[in-house]
Amino acid sequence: MAGVRGYFHPKTATGGSSLIPSPPWHYSGDLVTVEYRTDPARVAELLPEPLALADEDPGAVALIWADWQSCGSSKEELLDPVRAQYKEAFAVVRCSYRGKTYSRCVYIWVDKDFAIARGFHQGYPKKLGSIHMTRPHPYGPAPRIEAGASFGATLAAADRRLAEAVITLREPAETNGFVNGHPMAHHRWLPSIEKGKRLALDELIETGSASFEAGQPWSADAELALFEAPTEELARLEVHELIGAYYRQVGVSWDGGTLLETGTSGAE
Amino acid sequence: MAGVRGYFHPKTATGGSSLIPSPPWHYSGDLVTVEYRTDPARVAELLPEPLALADEDPGAVALIWADWQSCGSSKEELLDPVRAQYKEAFAVVRCSYRGKTYSRCVYIWVDKDFAIARGFHQGYPKKLGSIHMTRPHPYGPAPRIEAGASFGATLAAADRRLAEAVITLREPAETNGFVNGHPMAHHRWLPSIEKGKRLALDELIETGSASFEAGQPWSADAELALFEAPTEELARLEVHELIGAYYRQVGVSWDGGTLLETGTSGAE
Amino acid sequence: MAGVRGYFHPKTATGGSSLIPSPPWHYSGDLVTVEYRTDPARVAELLPEPLALADEDPGAVALIWADWQSCGSSKEELLDPVRAQYKEAFAVVRCSYRGKTYSRCVYIWVDKDFAIARGFHQGYPKKLGSIHMTRPHPYGPAPRIEAGASFGATLAAADRRLAEAVITLREPAETNGFVNGHPMAHHRWLPSIEKGKRLALDELIETGSASFEAGQPWSADAELALFEAPTEELARLEVHELIGAYYRQVGVSWDGGTLLETGTSGAE
Amino acid sequence: MAGVRGYFHPKTATGGSSLIPSPPWHYSGDLVTVEYRTDPARVAELLPEPLALADEDPGAVALIWADWQSCGSSKEELLDPVRAQYKEAFAVVRCSYRGKTYSRCVYIWVDKDFAIARGFHQGYPKKLGSIHMTRPHPYGPAPRIEAGASFGATLAAADRRLAEAVITLREPAETNGFVNGHPMAHHRWLPSIEKGKRLALDELIETGSASFEAGQPWSADAELALFEAPTEELARLEVHELIGAYYRQVGVSWDGGTLLETGTSGAE
């Protein structure tokens, strides 16, 4: 008996229906990053056991927009681009675990189902959203990647705008920011199917890129606004002070992570 | 220390960002059901250990379209209907487990993220799709629920049409079909975050309605067509013989299920 | 030579590509109506020559949500419902023309292209939007059409929420409101393709239903909020005083209108 | 009395609600072009009086995908990119008018309302569609613009795929094809609001770019497939022989056109 196959559901005899192929997954994309400081208590309240606030600059937040093309190892999705292209916006904070600093995505919105599925696997707490980013272009009115060029980035979900930013490039920079620069410490959680029981899945994992290439990062000036919505708490990460903003084009591969511990988050 | 809260991700201090509230979940909706026979081998290949083909009519399939409004116990989603309304189309087969007959959803497409999240929890292998159903209406050209009335139902995903049906109501019926009439035997699967390791989650669960009310079911004549697509295998469940078709309006509540066994599916 | 055919573009040898069929067009739908008073000057500024403010209650506005299924005389769209179903939200005021009171739609958002095309023809100034309305249902948590039942209605465009209402049914009513109860006085405008020339099309037309059937209207209490957006002016029609709210199910046919005059609007 | 303002509807006191600003309009974008020969009779049947088949290669068709960012003279849309970005796919043929060769768009699908409105103005017979194109990128798995790089392009409307192409770049080319290289001869048509009357608008116009800059065109090998759909006739332009394929990045401005004649198309 062959059994059902497929990296993800739906599992079938061939595996050909799986919403996502098995890793490695490859990505080409552009990133708009805006880093700012919020009240560290607002970061701390998003960190379950055994995570703690980062030692330095614990209130730092990165709000990142990304415009991706992604694929599995066959790369076939790239030629049927409805299956490759997606955009996302996500908020990253840092935390401390066993004396080491990690990044952690606390909110994220994407616009395709395969991206949601990868998020379940990687511990990104994904919802659907409507994400837009100005794209650089060598001709016409769209911006080049050069000093003075401005890029807009917006996020909406459930028909409400949640965030918008405009960044204006200043000069080549040494980094693309520091908040999203560590390995990610994420939880993978799923409730028990039985009422009142403990979580069926409660894993703390570490994950990060398997390979990375990138163009010159640019530093930028930024305007950022966050908006309230009845089912969102992004705006609780209030903007107290802008740290910096960045634009960068990257190529990334992802190929699995590491299980750190299980059953310890104390999450409901 | 309060810890993070929320039935689903993202978990926060308040729990207010959770993509879905804790059960019970309540649904109002209309169902178009088309039942047909396919090659039982095509059903068998979708049943992992320890499930087996149903004893009677093992090649029976129900393809069901549903137009839902759903909510948690606060019912607040109903008044912000972008958060309550969704449509879905799904294929159900039957199977046998420990001498008992179960229904099992083998493919399903929905059009909202909260429905995808509920699917992860309930073991429905959900993807995003574009689903449309004719709605009954008491005035104008749309059909009433009465003999001779026709309803169309269509499904597309990734910009390709996958299925379409037209049903024409014949007469009041005793049932809404038999394929989706049993408790559901579903798997909840998630790969390990570590490459080459066994599944992190491999649960066989039983789930079904906590309460159910419904109007008069109607039997119907049907035309049904399934279409090929590069990432879908619905059309492998070829239509060999139509069994029947049905229209029914229902109200349903869901409030959890039962864990049957773990680690036994042998799924990759 | 046969020439190209089709009621609308694209015109072809067969006419089969036309975005809309020739009238009559038939509609089944539900209407949520909220009527309120704004500053009459805000209404007057939307009325071009030769229209003037209505004599009575000139600041009255109706904001209406509609959930439609529509079709041409073949009714084939109803069985491929992606081509039949659409939702809209629109603001209606009244005006006076040659001593007679007309209704006039000043803003409208729809969610399908065939509805946009019909709007060009009928003088409705349509944009795309995301429109949602609670639907009545006989089972489960969704409301019945009965006293105490609440319905939500929301409008967004370009990822921003523009309006939201909740109405709670009070009792059967004699009417469905008065603002949208007159023939429509609409303009059909199109700029010249040549810069600096006068409008290529500047028609004042009268249009209305060719036939109408409807269920019992219900009066309702309402909450209504309008929101600012950079490319929208709906919120300039500020809510000074709520007049009333209504729910009604209707069946409507449209079959052409009357040209009142041309070239007189003075519009840029 | 100030009168209502705005280049397009809805016209208001400020003009700020207009679905499109007044020209000039500026565009940055990438073009995938596939040129092929069909039966010239299938082209001729799409050409109303007084247009005739082009003298040379009259069965030539260009199917073009474009991924645009566009704006008016303020360029503000670029920083709120949900208002600037859109994609389109369109079929172009050539025709002869008064001894001169013109290009003519016979079918076109776009994914934003402002693009539909510009189409009404410019005589492009636009419908809504879902359009996707692989985008070049300097890092990761997405293609660079270089020999051997492959780009996919797909079109769907009303939940059905209508066309898909894959092109593989061969070498730098002298042109981006010849079918879409002439001024456009388009009709602007609108039915009378009164049944049985002649068209209210029946204009033959000439339009083209006011300015144009572009990168190196690349020639490409191509695969192209067209699919049937109940309301579309693109597939009637059957692919008899591929001519060539091209990739090019362009910057374009549009600033009005010329009225050639009125009332002569003989269109229904």
UniProtKB/TrEMBL annotation, chains A, B, C, D:
Name this protein carries in UniProt: Acetoacetate decarboxylase
Keywords (A to Z) from UniProt: Plasmid
Organism: Streptomyces lunaelactis
Cross-referenced InterPro entries: Acetoacetate_decarboxylase (IPR010451), ADC_dom_sf (IPR023375)
Gene3D superfamilies, sorted: Acetoacetate decarboxylase-like
Superkingdom classification of source: Bacteria
GO molecular-function terms, A-Z: lyase activity
Keyword Glycoprotein among UniProt keywords: no
Pfam families given in the database record: ADC (PF06314)
